[in-house]
Amino acid sequence: MAERVTIVEVAARAGVAISSVSSALNDRPGVSEQTRARIKQAASDLGFVPSVRGRSLSAKRAFTVGLVVHRDPFVLESDPFFGSFIGGLESVLDPRGYALILQIGSAADETLDRYRRLAAGRRVDGVVLNELTVDDPRVPLVRELDLPAIAVNPAAGFPLPAVRQDDSAGIGELVEHLVALGHRRFAHVAGPGHFIHAQHRSEAWRRALVAAGHDPGVVVDADFTYDAGARAARQLFETGASSDRPTAVFCANDLAAIGFMAEADRLGLRVPDDVSVAGFDGIELGSYVRPGLTTMSTAPRLIGAEAARLLLLAIDGGPVADATIEPARLLVRASTGPAPR
């Protein structure tokens, strides 16, 4: 195996001091642009790969950021949203020479302990806070730890910088779409009530239906899993008169909606002839199931990329303002259709 090219060799090739190479390759001041270009060309010619340990010691940074998924490990296996979100983070972090540390903690105390361990000895330079909960204990913790943090879709008045995407416009479009199809009996398969984004979706659904002059209908408390969607279908359709059953159901995410459709089919109901079903997130899997799932397109990769961009700004010590990306929009497929007669 070839020996690793050192910073000493780069300095000799460029005819400069070692300190100048360090400044140039870490984009710090102290060298002219002409010298910086010569050093970078020498490093490229030699195939020089910076040592992460060396960069960390020089810059007093870990060049890593943390993401702790605050849910059951099964979520990462089953929900493609997280893969796209992580891909968005990596698309910004990797070109800047940062690595992502991913950890999973389903219990609240376990999750908080992971943040403490990440902050100890500055194992990470900052963290992304996703899936925020009501009175989320991670918020005061990262402030206590003096750990730069960026949140994803928090409530109004949040004390830390955040990436925000409005979901109410897309849900309003869904309600207009269903009402125009003749639906008058509705149900919502909600996410866990302690999650801020689940509350946002439920409230937007309720507001839009009330504004359209309709009863919001039944709310089934569930989570964001396939199995929870299937259980909700049984709860709605195995009991009660058919005249009281909803003809249009909005699930808080696509995975639950897909589980709902599969169970409805097992119960002898046709989608969308007997019941229209819509989800939220816009995961690619929704285009593969039959019928294709009507959903809200949310661009998780873009959310991740913006979160990473803001976090690197915060790590650099500059001012960081909230970033707002394009609102979630309705994507109509075959799982919604005219209300049954």
Description:
The chain contains 13 helices and twelve strands. With 341 residues, it is an alpha/beta fold. It folds into three domains: 36 residues, no CATH class; 129 residues, Rossmann fold, CATH 3.40.50; 132 residues, Rossmann fold (3-Layer(aba) Sandwich). A six-stranded parallel beta sheet has the order 2-1-3-4-5-11, sandwiched between helices. A four-stranded parallel beta sheet has the order 7-6-8-9, with helices on both faces. Strands 10-12 form a two-stranded antiparallel ribbon. It starts with 6 loop residues before the first helix and ends in a 10-residue tail after the last strand. The model has no long low-confidence stretch (mean pLDDT 90).
Task: Give the structure's gist in a few sentences.
With 341 residues, the protein is α/β, with parallel strands linked by helices. Helices cover 43% and strands 13% of the residues. Strand 6, helix 10 (196-211) and strand 7 form a beta-alpha-beta unit.
